[in-house]
Structure to design on (227 residues):
């Protein structure tokens, strides 16, 4: 069975600085997708970034980038130039390719951006 | 933009009541999902549906059932609510798979 682990329940960062959120996963599959979702306080969960396992290049979306280490089964999220609006809970998620679209989520990391 | 809506943001029910949580998506997605979110546990899949009238159990289906009579609507039913079902319930839809899922705003259910 696949599992996703986020070992940092809470983190904080000063505005304009860089922070990295960790995520590890366990699977015997070779083709899969990885995602980071953001859930702001009392607001809807939204997709931040996704990575296809067959792509070696790390995905980037503006200030958000990932460090995907397939052999180590690691998928960390780096947020550059942190903004107050980045304060949220962040979830790492795993999906097997060709499946029914089911996601397996980590426990979440609460990120506080301080002014 | 994909829109996923849920019938209530907050709901308070009594133990033993039958509870209906409704979810509607407007993007003709084949797949729909129900999760519950609890602190320290992340999101856990209750049920999902990949087509009208089709459903599959997720990781924690006990005490829940679902209904999908129309493609855009997916309902979660608590047959007899219990206090341990107090939680945040999130609905999501997706198509195609590789784009991940789109979530509704959630329903915070309290069972007293």
């Amino acid at each position: 069975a696949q599992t996703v682990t986020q070992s940092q329940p809470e983190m904080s960062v000063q505005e304009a600085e860089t922070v990295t959120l960790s995520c590890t996963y366990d699977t015997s599959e070779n083709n899969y997708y990885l995602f980071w979702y953001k859930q702001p306080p009392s607001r809807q969960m939204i997709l931040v970034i996704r990575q296809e396992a067959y792509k070696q290049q790390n995905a980037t979306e503006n200030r958000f980038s990932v460090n995907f280490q397939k052999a180590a089964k690691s998928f960390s999220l780096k947020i550059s130039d942190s903004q107050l609006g980045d304060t949220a809970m962040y979830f790492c998620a795993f999906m097997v390719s060709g499946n029914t679209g089911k996601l397996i989520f980590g426990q979440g990391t609460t990120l506080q951006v301080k002014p | 933009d994909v829109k996923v809506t849920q019938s209530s943001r907050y709901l308070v029910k009594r133990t033993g009541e039958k509870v209906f949580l409704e979810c509607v998506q407007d993007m003709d997605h084949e797949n729909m999902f129900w999760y519950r979110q609890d602190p320290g546990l992340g999101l856990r899949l209750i049920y999902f549906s990949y087509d009208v009238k089709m459903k599959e159990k997720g990781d924690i289906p006990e005490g829940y059932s679902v209904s999908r009579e129309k493609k855009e609507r997916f309902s979660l039913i608590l047959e007899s609510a219990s206090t341990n079902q107090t939680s945040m319930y999130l609905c999501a839809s997706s198509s195609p798979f590789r784009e991940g899922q789109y979530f509704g705003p959630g329903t915070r259910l309290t069972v007293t």
User: Anything to note?
Assistant: The radius of gyration of chain B is 13 Å.
